[in-house]
Write a sequence for this structure.
């Protein structure tokens, strides 16, 4: 991302009024995660399954607000978006207003800003890229993808705590790379009292971050030599 220069990207959202997909432009100020294939995959699962229709939705780690806006456009009755980054909070607020969607934006760490509330749907595209060290960045764009040595620093926290914010019939839609261990996610959600399954998979080419870390990932045995295809998964979960 060029320093100091906002970027835009077109995301395909469901248009409840026309019944067709429509593209909208989202703004990405410097330091805010630019929605990529993982966001697209989760939006597609949410749209096809009509998970957001008539629901109270929580978007954790919202970034630019792409998932929150997608949920609002897909028929959610109320959408709340949370992010630790002040820039992400500002970007989500601006993008949601530009798109004419009603999204309540909160700043804070994961579920802390919505403690005591419950939601019918929780969506999350958290940082999940394995990093060189254990210390997570707080004030750089890398905070949008760095997730510790195994890529699970945020994933494990979401899996252990999400049951407390889901209604009894609520759903979680969580997207991440298989580099982080899909079975580990399913097991963590099960340990938290949720019934989980893989809802979708997609193979995508390595982006710039994974390309730059390919040698590191090979040395750790997380990818095979020469692998440059990433496998994404969307995991769904609800109370057992």
């Amino acid at each position: 991302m060029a320093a100091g220069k906002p970027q835009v990207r077109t995301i395909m959202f469901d248009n409840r009024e026309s019944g067709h997909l429509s593209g909208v432009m989202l703004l990405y100020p410097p330091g805010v995660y630019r929605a990529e294939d993982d966001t697209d995959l989760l939006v597609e699962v949410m749209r096809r399954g009509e998970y957001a229709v008539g629901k109270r939705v929580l978007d954790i780690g919202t970034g630019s607000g792409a998932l929150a806006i997608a949920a609002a456009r897909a028929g959610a009755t109320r959408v709340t978006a949370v992010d630790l980054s002040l820039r992400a909070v500002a970007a989500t607020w601006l993008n949601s207003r530009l798109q004419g969607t009603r999204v309540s934006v909160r700043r804070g760490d994961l579920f802390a800003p919505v403690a005591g509330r419950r939601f019918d749907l929780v969506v999350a595209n958290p940082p999940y890229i394995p990093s060189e060290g254990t210390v997570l960045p707080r004030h750089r764009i890398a905070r949008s993808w760095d997730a510790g040595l195994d890529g699970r620093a945020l994933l494990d926290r979401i899996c252990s705590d999400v049951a407390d914010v889901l209604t009894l019939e609520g759903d979680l839609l969580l997207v991440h790379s298989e580099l982080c261990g899909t079975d580990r996610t399913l097991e963590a959600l099960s340990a938290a009292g949720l019934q989980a399954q893989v809802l979708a998979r997609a193979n995508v080419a390595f982006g710039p971050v994974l390309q730059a870390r390919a040698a590191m990932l090979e040395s750790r045995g997380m990818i095979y030599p020469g692998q440059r295809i990433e496998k994404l998964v969307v995991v769904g979960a609800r109370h057992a």
Q: What stands out?
A: The domain at 7-205+232-239 is CATH 3.40.50.150 (Rossmann fold). The radius of gyration is 17 Å. The chain has seven helices and nine strands.
